[in-house]
């Protein structure tokens, strides 16, 4: 009982963060434009600066939905872990860095977030991996049937 409740808490946390971030990704918020512009320029994929946030947002929405359906939770957790592993990777190994700029209402940089976005992504990665491991061992799933 405790184990199932713990999984639900982690799933709700991940889904909540994904869903609340959709506003930023789908409205071209200054923070989102900055992040995906840096990554687009760094990778040389100009289209990623323009459309990357939409693709990531759609993927996060799908993951959030899958996490709320017990029969699909493993796949939602794996998808969530993949998205968050990408976020952590890009923070650590690209010019994006750990500290993200904070913007005022007119788009001017007024400081940085002290790494809050990175630390939240790291926490979500851990939560998603924990849910994936718990689901893998606690359920009869297609991945387990294929591997074993």
UniProtKB/TrEMBL annotation:
Gene Ontology CC entries for this record: membrane
Record bears the keyword Transmembrane helix: yes
Location in or out of the cell: Membrane
Domain Methylamine utilisation protein MauE: 6-89
Membrane topology reported for the UniProt record: Multi-pass membrane protein
Entry keywords, A to Z: Membrane, Transmembrane, Transmembrane helix
Annotated pathway: One-carbon metabolism; methylamine degradation
Transmembrane residue ranges: 7-27, 47-67, 74-96, 116-137
Entry keyword Transmembrane: yes
Chief location: membrane
Any one GO biological process: methylamine metabolic process
A matching Pfam family: MauE
Function recorded in the entry: May be specifically involved in the processing, transport, and/or maturation of the MADH beta-subunit.
Annotated protein name in UniProt: Methylamine utilization protein MauE
Organism: Endozoicomonas numazuensis
